[in-house]
Amino acid sequence: MTETMKTAPEIKAVPETMTAAFEDFMQAFEAFKETNEIRLGEIEQKQTADVVTREKLDRINRAVDDHKRVIDQLALKKARPALGGSGAASLEAAEHKAAFSAYMRRGDESALRSLEEKAMSVGSASDGGYLVPPETDTDIGRRLSAASPIRALATVRQVSGMVLKKPFATSGMAAGWVAETASRPQTGNAQLAELSFPTMELYAMPAATSALLDDAAVDVESWIASEVDIVFAEQEGTAFVSGDGTNKPKGFLSYTNVADTSWSWGNIGYIATGAAGAFKASGPSDALIDTIYALKAGHRQNANFVMNRKTQAAIRKFKDADGNYLWRPPATPGQSASLMGFAITEAEDMPDIAADSFSIAFGDFRAGYLVVDRTGVRVLRDPYSAKPYVLFYTTKRVGGGVQNFEAIKLVKFAAS
Fold first, then answer.
1. pTM across the whole model
2. How does pLDDT run across 300-331, given as a tens digit for each residue?
3. Which of 165, 286, 318, 323 is the most exposed place for a label (fewest CB within 10 A)?
4. By the 8 A CB rule, do 268 and 257 touch?
5. Closest CA to 306 of 192, 412, 178, 150
6. Cβ atoms of residues 269 and 294 within 8 Å
7. What angle do the packed helices 134-147 and 51-79 form, to 10 degrees?
8. What region does 246 belong to: left with phi over 0, alpha with psi -120 to 50, or beta?
9. DSSP H helical ranges for 200-278
10. Domains observed in the chain
11. Which residues is 157 bridged to in the sheet?
């Protein structure tokens, strides 16, 4: 019986199309389900699964993750626009792009200084560098949305100052029923809280040789974007999840976490799995159901699960009372897998399952988390500090934090 089991297709070469990658992914998932059914049958008959079956299931589970990763990479590649193309740009944009290219290649800042003086820009060549042209700036932002999953889920605000202050009503006005001739006592007022979201500096400093910059075939703007977007996205993704708020955004896992039954404003509520560092042996999905219904209906309809691949691999084995898998593969290429009808967002910065870990988040992140971007990405050219290399000190100011503490819930892998 074991010899006739399907095996997941190995990734020997990356498929060229999303459709081919999706077909390989679905084939791997079918092999996973077949092997898992055999494992469950062995447990029912012999109280334990065969070692060979367990090892095979683990291999197939990893293969499913590998195929999903390929789909994600193809989707990301498809979403990335080409830089420096022949689109119909305005004369002003073309002039800025040409001036920026001259500054990047030769350090000629005269044209950029003239343009930014005309625009009354606050940037300066001597200390602050120059604003990246809008095409490149937009491209970096778009790539960050694809590579940083929390940014893609959250609300993003553009600001021109250092701090965004946001008022929030923690309670509404009071009202009451009254008889026609009864007195009307004064009712309670709405309670407002002010949330503050400072922007922090995120930087990268790629280097290039003078010979590379002299090569007219090199698209300098595209090179800057490709170098910077990956490192910015990695730093942002970590900060939005677990950043401590010191010189970086504050991640949603860094706020005070309390049992949801004791929840109050300013804290993030959690549901315990009932077992330290694991799901309960009996009814492991109960904690997930409790987490879903811990959210109010208005947030629940827009909610996502957030977890890393290892946690998702553990959940992939769960079934409901009718024998249906709770984890569902994407319906079409480019979509997300789902758990109990809610989309799953993979964030590798989420912690692995361990004792007292918060490895799963569930919530309406559009309402719950705010990302603050200060307008503009700046580049300062430094041809002196690391000769013969030219350094490009690239900076971006980003902030972030929880704006609605009701909208996000966590799963804690603990007895209580």
1. 0.75
2. 999 999 999 999 999 999 998 888 999 999 88
3. 323
4. yes
5. 150
6. yes
7. 160
8. beta
9. 210-214, 220-242
10. 2-79 (no CATH), 130-172+188-308+347-416 (3.30.2400.10)
11. 372
